[in-house]
Design goal:
6 helices
Amino acid sequence: VAGVVALALYVHTSSPGAQGPGESQASLDTVVYRSSSTTTSYCTSTSAGPVLGGADLVAYHSLDAGSDAVMGTSDYVATIGDYEFYFSTASNRDLFEANPSKYTPAWGGFCSWGIAEEDWWTKSDLGPYANPNSWTIVGGRLHVFMYETPMDYFLEGDIKGEVYSGDERWEGWFSDDVVFNTRCIWHCATTDKTQFC
């Protein structure tokens, strides 16, 4: 990944046979990058695609807990600044446009546990990946997580305190800036050992 070279951590799955049909063990290996100067711009690039990979942010509010995200399409697009949001229906797009603050994800759509509790993330080194299928709604607000374990930590902890901490941190970093996660998407809901499972 161009420009993201400060620190590379090699992560390798240790579960032989965990691969799906047609995948080799090598395809389950991934390199996770963390950079002190380019992670935020990499993860929030408006040219990288829609926010949260195109998940329909309105649909979350009618899903049962534990359901996978409903993916939107480029047929139904809304924008905030230069960021695009995809929806699965015109009705959902219209609901979003009427009240975007009701539907935009907490802390730009980055992992809520990471923003609230992991102190190594900074304004310039932002990148707690998020998985659109690892989510919950707290107080009417969408929270996404990298995978199940951080979501469990968040839900089993002091939620009010975590929300306060995350809000204070995000406001301190971005104040009135519009920042959303367009590229730092995790695709495995059960582990941090491999991005795809």
